[in-house]
Amino acid sequence: MQSYLLRRAWQSLLVLFGVSVVVFLILHLTGDPALLLLPPDASSDDITRFREAMGFNDPVAVQYLRFLKGAVRGDFGESLRHGEPAMHLVLERLPATFELAGAGLLIALCLAIPAGIVSAVRRNTPVDYVSTVVALLGQAMPTFWLGIMLILVFSVRLNWLPSSGRGALDHLILPAITLGLFTTARITRLTRSGMLEVLGQDYIRTARAKGVSESPVVWKHALKNASIPIVTIVGIELGTLLGGSVITETIFAWPGVGRLSVQAIFNRDYPVVQAAVFILASTFVVVNFLVDIVYTYLDPRIRFR
Amino acid sequence: MVLLRRLLRRRTALFGMLVVAVVLLTAAFAPVIAPFDPLAQDISQRLREPAWQDAQGRTHVLGTDHLGRDILARIIYGSRIALLVGLAAVLISGVLGMAIGLISGYFGGRVDDFFMRLADVQLAFPFILLAIAVIGVLGPSLRNIIIVIGVSSWVVYARVVRGEVLSIRERDFVQAAIALGSRDTQVLIRHVLPNTFTPWLVVATLDMARVIVIESALSFLGLGVQPPTPTWGGMLADGRVYLSTAWWLATFPGLAILVTVLGINLFGDGLRDTLDPRLKI
Predict the structure, then answer these.
(1) Do B130 and A143 touch (CB under 8 A)?
(2) Size of the A and B interface in Cβ pairs below 8 Å
(3) I need a labelling partner for B81 at 20 to 30 A (CA). Which of A79, A112, A182, A287 fits?
(4) Which of A83, A98, A57 is nearest to A267 (CA)?
């Protein structure tokens, strides 16, 4: 068990290292970071001086080590636009993104798990068909279009809910639904197929045969065993949610890391882009490590692999 | 043929296949089908409602946009970019993922460890964020979009192919080929690769839907193929500005994406259930 967790911790560290390499390389893709960071009208003298000052003439490996040294201390340089440390800007926006992603995940779990279970238990009934069609549509619907349509109906037409900004709970509803729908659809389908598989097992038949009534069979015997893939996908879906937050935050003017990074890309404010990408990717790695720990409790077989 | 018949017997898969066929034909024959020039502006006819008839008695079935361009024509032409990016990116990532999966699964050990950690790194990034960061640096162009999406989407293919290789490698015909002294590349290409093709195809089909959504998201953010070329995402971005006055601008391009993606997904699901029901994607 401990050796398993140690191995996973080591793997997570390796992945974080890889993440840092990719984040570093973003700036070096065109070959000349100085041209990216300076305004287009900078004179060639300025560029030369800037290159020297930033150490862009050093070998790439030296530059990477310098970057890594900064990155582990949370130093990604100053935002070119705001004159503040880039990391500070990102951390300031992080709670907003977590709030949105958390709300999206909560909606997804509250809708998807019951829907998936009912679908599986009442297989091939109208309830199952409706839930399957909704899940299929949810998986095919682009986030940004869903967001716009929700604004069209609930903000522009009905004037029920605000279409932008962060504030009271009513501000959270539309963005959270927008962000959560795809995940809802995915978890619904996964829960349904997982439950169907478990409900066909011998131990379920045994439970029924020995006279256990239907609801404990479904909720205790079946759901417990079907929950393992659901926990895995929650970890993976976090990546989808953090990625989706980029689009959702842009549509709803939600002041989170996603919107900050889109703005930073358009302002060519690359230190902020690097800090944002690094933080979101690291969040994903850390959460998935935590999911793995939860996992070992749910499924003791894993500890001995 | 048997497979095709089995596939067609599933109603949802049939529906998906029909949608895919219609989108393909639309893209191929866009100039013939489109009722108007997708780029022709006419400010006097801007923001007209769906089914609007102009002075010459021609109908704009889905209305016109803020520059007086016909929305139906733009949606029809937009399918070209969506499919082009979809096919090209899927081809790049599919070939890349196939190669990595074959090598990883066949040789195992350190090579395998390296590629699987690389896959973890790739998956750690919110895809769209990495894509917009890289395209922001390189500049948005059709070529860059295809390359960025293609190069960063190999993981699913590699994982599925690797899984298949792990079991195929132990089969008698592969062991026999190795025992007879075939070189590794020969074994991989002649004996292993053909047996991984089916799951690969299913992944490629389903991934195509994802790539089309990514392409339209990039266009929506202004980092896709640049105007005036019509793209579904770009049309949506335009329509968002006129949401309170002209609902049709944003509604129809989104429907086009929804229907296309739904069709591909249903087709892909059907393909999986017919070809390889064990496959979990």
Answers:
(1) no
(2) 137
(3) A182
(4) A83
Query: What is the mean pLDDT of the segment spanning A94-112?
Result: 92
pLDDT tens per residue across span A34-78: 777 777 777 888 888 888 877 788 888 888 998 898 888 888 888
HSE-up of residue A52 (Cα within 13 Å, Cβ side)? 6
Report residue B70: phi and psi, to 5°.
-70, 125
Dump pLDDT digits (tens) for B176-217.
Answer: 988 898 888 888 888 889 989 988 999 999 999 999 999 999
| Chain B residue with minimum CA distance to A136 | B262
A86 in reach of chain B (CB within 8 A): no
Query: Which of A281, A185, A102 is CA-nearest to residue B209?
Result: A185
Tell me how far apart the alpha carbons of residues A109 and A16 are, in angstroms, rounded to a whole number.
28
Rounded to the nearest 10°, the torsion over CA A116, A154, B243, A98 is -60
CA distance linking residue B8 with residue B28, whole number of Å: 24
> Least CB-CB distance to A262: which of B132, B250, B258?
B132
For residue B185, give the H/E element and its range.
helix B184-186
**Residue A103 pLDDT > 90, yes or no?**
yes
Residues 6+ apart with CB under 8 A from B212: B82, B83, B85, B86, B257, B260, B261, B264
Which helix (H) or strand (E) element contains residue B87? helix B71-107
> Environment class of residue A222 by beta-carbon count within 10 Å: exposed (0-12), middle (13-18) or buried (19+)?
buried
Contact B209, B261 (CB under 8 A): yes
Q: Please, is A202 exposed, middle or buried when counting C-beta atoms within 10 Å of its C-beta (0-12, 13-18, 19+)?
A: exposed
* ipTM of the modeled complex: 0.85
Token pair belonging to B183: 């070189």
Amino acid code (one letter) for B190 = R
Tell me how far apart the alpha carbons of residues A138 and A130 are, in angstroms, rounded to a whole number. Answer: 12
